[in-house]
Design brief:
- The structure is a homotrimer of 449-residue chains.
- Chain A is of the alpha/beta class and 449 residues long.
- In chain A, strands 1-10-12-11-13-16-14-15 form an eight-stranded mixed β-sheet, with helices on both faces.
- In chain A, α5 packs across α9 and α10 crosses α12.
- The longest helix of chain A is centred in the C-terminal third of the chain and has 20 residues.
- Chains in contact: A-B, A-C, B-C.
- At the A-B interface, α6 of A face α10 of B.
Chain lengths: 449, 449, 449
């Protein structure tokens, strides 16, 4: 995944334009992604798809022709969505268009001006302080004209039409953690899932932040009803522990699955929904209120490298990316395997011993797998799903799931069919929920790119 | 307020009588208060309005005529509601009628005997210990005869008939914190509210403890249905932090408003309802179960000066009284401004930037006011009132209220009309909930008396 | 009780057989117990009543005839339910049938093989290590043939048919705490209750673990509907603090009563239900979900003596047994006296003073009994039972119960009749809930046996 990020890093992305398209094409080498184009001016709820922005060059030169700021050094140097400029001005006038981080004097900030036509440069405070008085030549060789907003989509059909949505904002320029890390994890997750049987249908969206999710929701309102669970992936490459931000609902299945996995894997943070952050803001707006949470390592704004030139290739780590992918898969595995079972022998315990499921020698406490069977039998009353049982029993979901499968295999457990959206009459699903533990199948392949 | 308390302090109040009437007349100089008279013998639920008690003098003199205890030194010296006495008796017999505080030997206790005809004196243990043996002459020049129970009322009509009740027991004699402080805060609160537009109708009751609230409830049972919120005010002048005792319901709007304000203002305590304390006992009896809480500083029985001669003018402080008044107003402000709004653009976020409500430069976290708008938009789904949103967002109510007003001004928010008791067809209320922040209007005027 | 346990200790009990019957006969000297016999082969839900097991002798002797292991030293030496054996074998072969506790080398473990026909011996690791090489003669003089499963029952009718179930597993051989302690407490509890008026009907079951409760439930399914509350008693003689394991429901009346009593009496632990432990596993299976909790001191598996020869007569203590009995009675007392009352004077407080229930001198805080009356009056709105009120008021149940009785005696409180199963038209119950505190009547008599 780190190699993929290295390839994507230099591209100047924005919420529209060729940099976004080029990035999607590179991701398509990992897993096939469809590019969709929405014309400028399309009305999407309260918003309008903006003009398309492209940029080729930008610089600030002094009277001697020395280039103090150059787009080719870092695409963060230009305020994203700057209109074209070619002029001369005094340092005093120029300063009104310059952005720095006085508290982090060596770093270039990341700034945008998507919805107010303006131009500007970002540079380090150190550079600003060195600028000699005098006149400067300023060039931004950009275009901002009617065109399209582009987004990428990867749809992986499952045995049911119920969908799991994975959404990643893919519009930031040279910022590695925010959000090349999310793009890489999503692409490799999609590749892995495409190679394995799936119960749910998976929809991956690679979209520009805010306007992208608003556009997709506005143009696919009917399809949103199929979304059963969703995850926004972002900032998954830094060395911090995982953070899960709950959906607006707070107790949706995705919230419980993510909480279960994060608890199992060690240090972590669980946060309540707030209407700020990434595209979960749109998915969780009250008119949709979709069960979409957000998985991150260190959240937006909480690492000093955030939205600066220090969010670079050194900041994201292979082991963090791999770990993020594994835990995302573990969350998905719960969503895939969670079921509502009923104990078919609900009066007293069944005699597990004669079915070979319980030690015949009495007198000692049972191991986890046997305890998991007792829990599944006791709580499978039509009101507790496997995730409920795992939480109540304080056992790993996989242990509870395997215990349920063993009980199902000997006819002690029946599944309550819930989904109304089966895609075929063929019981592909029972094939999927076979007793062979599916963990190896879902184990992520080693990431290579 | 302290000057008002200083004037009221020497008056010998009781649950009936001229001292109570004189106190109401003094309060009427701050805000007009109507005096109501209920005849002795009136049946009020399980109780009967008692005979009226008045007292002119009382003393204990030894054989030499030396007055060891004199009502004119402190009206606490007489057990409140003592029947008239004029007799001679030995020290041994007299002691059966004397009350002291052995653990606080310099203080005079406060004792009453409203419902059992009896007499007695309260004095310091120090004085008791000095009484020489011998015969004593005892005089209580009181009357206990059919008359009236008096209570004061101040009704401030609002734009709706829904009422906020403010109830203060006003029957204690020379005890400054319990409850001249509550009487003073209530009077100045009423004066302030009388000068400003009001949504709710405000009803202030200055009543004798227990029998007063029982009498009012018994005689105004139908009117209790208009009470939407209520506060008992007591012990608001001591130097301790504020304490709010929840209504019996525990989660009423008054409970949440008071909790919000107390959290915002610093050190405080929130307590669950208990059926002991002040008149909230009656308002919260199960047959009424009104949403009435109690605001205090240090609660009854928890300061050593409680119900002793040490609860005097030195014990109550101007800054405590002023602070209590300000916080009471802040609680009322929440009740006045709390609304149920609906987001009129519920699908995705509206574009606040083009309405001038959001910074056009992207890349940094929004300030509180913008966060408050995002919260209001996200949670205004018909299930969350402004106070809910303020609590969920951990933002001050005023910030959330102002954000809601800004959104309402640009047509993004609609108000859910709830009240069935509009007093007039004229939309006075929309005038009240104008976008101008009402804080200054509700800011307490400097207390002078 | 300790004397009773001393008598029972040497008897070799199992889930069937004459040792079980002999134990019930000894318990019958404390309180009459009916013996019930269920034939081998009876189908009980998913299980079958097993063959009856009896044993007379068992030993392991070396070639010199020296008996290294002898059943008459400790009946734990034989794996419970061992089939008859009389053979010679090498030490190596013999070891496949030997069970020790290497971590507790001086103790004999307790092992069973009820449902897999097998045989074996349990011995200390110390003895095993001393066994010389060579051939051994092995004898288990047991029978495992069709017969009966025995259980004991003691039914104490109350004024209502609603039942409180007390269940004790009585199948373990020479293990004093697990569960001769439970058997002794149950027998003395039954004897005590048999001497006093009862509201509920009490059903005591002395049963073999697991198969016993399954058998009783299968054969008395209709009767289970009468069970309103239930307790499994086990491990009640060790020196540890009391532990209550909640029923599956978690908030049943028995759970709240037990929690209340355990909090009142000092150090304790409250645990959530888990589907492992004693016969609550069966009572709380989802097809029954009876409100049955489990009262223990140190739980199964958590004391080092558990299921070893160290769980002997020295391990159980008279004071622990007595304390367990007293607290069990206190729990039952709550179940017996808990009522749903309604305040017949719900508007404002009634005037308790003129009924002699409240101090006529005002000015000081009321004592617990008066506070309890205020609480009962305030919360008796048809939604709060006495146990709710005691919990909310943080007062002992007995204080609240006595306060309710006092209020009932003066006509301020009415009882809401809930039970549909009155056994007689005679108001025996009002006789039971008389105002005389029933505590002395329910106080356990000194245990003697």
């Amino acid at each position: 995944m780190h190699a993929l990020i290295t390839d994507l890093f230099p591209i100047c992305r924005s919420i529209t334009g060729d940099g976004f398209r080029a990035s999607l094409r590179r991701l398509s080498e990992v897993v096939p992604i469809t590019l969709n184009e929405v014309p400028t001016g399309t009305q999407v709820f309260d918003w309008t798809v903006p003009k398309e922005w492209n940029i080729r060059d930008a610089w600030i030169a002094d009277a001697d022709g020395r280039r103090w700021v150059d787009f080719h050094d870092s695409n963060l140097h230009v305020v994203n969505y700057s209109i074209p400029v070619r002029t001369r001005m005094s340092l005093a006038d120029l300063k009104g268009h310059l952005h720095t981080l006085p508290g982090q004097p060596d770093l270039i900030p990341y700034r945008t001006s998507y919805y107010a036509e303006d131009w500007g440069f970002c540079l380090s405070q150190r550079t600003l302080d060195q600028l000699p008085d005098g006149e400067y030549e300023v060039c931004i060789d950009s275009t901002l004209v009617p065109g399209h907003l582009t987004y990428g989509e990867c749809l992986l059909p499952g045995s049911v039409a119920d969908e799991i949505l994975i959404s990643v904002h893919s519009c930031h320029p040279s910022l590695a953690n925010d959000n090349l890390s999310g793009m890489a994890v999503a692409a490799f997750l999609a590749r892995h899932l495409s190679d394995h049987p799936r119960r749910h249908t998976f929809r991956f969206l690679f979209i520009p932040g805010t306007i992208g999710s608003i556009t997709w929701l506005a143009l696919h309102e009917a399809e949103t009803r199929k979304i059963r669970h969703g995850l926004v992936l972002s900032c998954l490459g830094d060395p911090g522990p995982l953070t899960y931000k709950r959906s607006r609902r707070g107790t949706a299945a995705i919230d419980r699955a993510a909480t279960h996995v994060l608890k199992e894997q060690g240090a972590h943070a669980i946060r309540d929904f707030v209407p700020y952050g990434y595209d979960e803001r749109q998915y969780c707006s009250p008119g949709f209120d979709l069960p979409v949470g957000c998985l991150m390592r260190t959240p937006n704004g909480e690492f000093p490298e955030y939205h600066t030139s220090a969010d670079n290739l050194d900041f994201v780590r292979s082991e963090s990316l791999e770990h993020s992918l594994r835990q995302t898969l573990a969350i998905i595995e719960i969503l895939e395997y969670d079921e509502l079972y009923v104990n078919l022998n609900p009066k007293c315990e069944p005699q597990l011993g004669r079915r070979g499921l319980y030690d015949s020698k009495g007198g000692t406490a049972p191991p986890d797998f046997q305890m998991a069977m007792l829990w599944v039998l006791n709580l499978s009353d039509g009101h507790h799903r496997l995730i409920d049982i795992a939480e109540r029993a304080a056992l790993p979901f996989v242990t509870v799931r395997d215990a349920a499968q063993a009980l199902r295999d000997v006819g002690l457990l029946g599944v309550v069919e819930e989904s109304k959206t089966e895609r075929s009459a063929v019981p592909v699903r029972s094939q999927f929920t076979r007793s062979v533990p599916p963990s190896p199948a879902l184990k992520p392949s080693r990431a290579t790119s």
